[in-house]
């Protein structure tokens, strides 16, 4: 039923735009990453992944771009959408 609802289609378009924007931000950070100059949460996330990898901690594998995009999306939803 949901795919036939107008607002659902609009929400999916918006979700796609947000996902693309976050991916571009992450890709830009990957290209310009400097472990000695942590600029924001994206750099901190990559730094933590690299730190865990260098220590042989297998949990570094869970630091994926998809997970991070999801975390950013949830963060923004919590910031701009208040509970009723």
Automatic annotation (TrEMBL):
Keywords: Monooxygenase, Oxidoreductase. It comes from the Eukaryota. InterPro entries: Cyt_P450_sf (IPR036396). The keyword Translocase does not apply. GO terms for molecular function: heme binding; iron ion binding; monooxygenase activity; oxidoreductase activity, acting on paired donors, with incorporation or reduction of molecular oxygen. The keyword Repressor does not apply. This is Cytochrome P450 2F3. The lineage of its organism: Eukaryota, Metazoa, Ecdysozoa, Arthropoda, Chelicerata.
């Amino acid at each position: 039923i949901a795919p036939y609802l107008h607002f659902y289609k609009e929400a999916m378009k918006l979700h796609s735009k947000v996902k693309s924007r976050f991916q571009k931000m992450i890709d830009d950070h990957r290209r310009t990453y400097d472990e000695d100059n942590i600029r924001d949460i994206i750099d901190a996330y990559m730094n933590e992944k690299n730190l865990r990898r260098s220590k042989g901690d297998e949990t570094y594998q869970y630091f994926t771009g998809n997970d991070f995009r999801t975390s950013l999306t949830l963060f923004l939803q919590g910031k701009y959408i208040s509970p009723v």
